[in-house]
Amino acid sequence: MTKGFTQAWAVILAAGQGSRLAAAGRGRKQYLPFKGQPLFWHSAQALASAGRIKGLVLVFPPEEVEDMARTVAELDQAASLGLPWIVTAGGILRQDSVRNGLLALPRDCDAVLVHDAARPFASPGLIRAVLAALDNGAPGAIPALLVTDTVKRVAPDGITVLDTPARKDLRAVQTPQGFVRAVLDEAHARAVAENWAVTDDASMLERMGLPVVCVPGEEGNVKITTPEDLKLLTPERPELPCVGWGYDVHRYGGDRPLVLGGVAIPGGPMVSAHSDGDVLLHALMDAILGCVAKGDIGQHFPDTDPQFAGISSSVLLREVLATAREAGLTIVHVDMTIIAQIPRLAPHARQIQENVAHLLELPFSRVNFKATTEEKLGFTGQKLGLKAVAAVTGLRPA
Question: ∠ at Cα 143 (138, 144), nearest 5°?
């Protein structure tokens, strides 16, 4: 595959029976409620937040496809993924469900991620790492963790130990697993023709003699499988809502090109600033810091410090987000407004909204951006500068 694919889709497997949880009377695991939504929807939101996924195929039990199509539509209406999605029926085996998902993909899809619906904690960073491995030429890529326990291979009786594989050669594999779409299509065609039975899609590439590379997995990317795993869906501490508000101003006439939300605005006025002068991200950072009672960006990145001269506000935002995460903040929603007489920002609104969602690792539907004027009143109306306000809603441990 040529480096830098452009049409990556994801297949979310939600067609399993969940026998261990079902036996405990908890129903199918992909439908378990977590923070008011079913597990499969959290997996869908994680994939949508990664920034490069163009669409999703959700695979459900055949007898539930019509009902789940309506459910997905309702969920998407309440908290939109910002992506097209398709619902299709699964098969008897996992590999049958994957194959059905592949058949539902659009023809121009050139890379595909396969993800278990019962892994709701996969981070956007992990998803992007898998995609990056495909960018670098791998036909397949999987997240994997070092095995820390000693593993024994036993006889068919399940009792007698045969040998002890070296831990350094072992990895515990997770999803999402990523593949060049044409390669995975060929692998599934051969699996049908040659009657393969495999536990994951990477195994098919291995049987074809194709390399599969590992990217570092995440300890938190667990799969909800047993009744004991349900504890992971119950926060140890209750969370309380919080709101932060940010405001920032920059005057025109400086030497910094206009950047808003990390997006360059061609033809916009130059601004005066110590950093890159991104007034929108500055207001956003102040709002995030407000949620965790950590002051403002002037305290963290003073304009008297030469190391911050001309620095990208996207870099500063990463530092602010790290501070917020240490305080236990989960950002739920962001609302931002630019007040400026010039330039006209409507042509750039979508890109700004998408970029901020990407920077915050939030679904597109959780980030709002708008621009307005002050009817030629005040310093903005006189085209002397611009200002931004931002409101951030989040959850913090009580």
Answer: 115
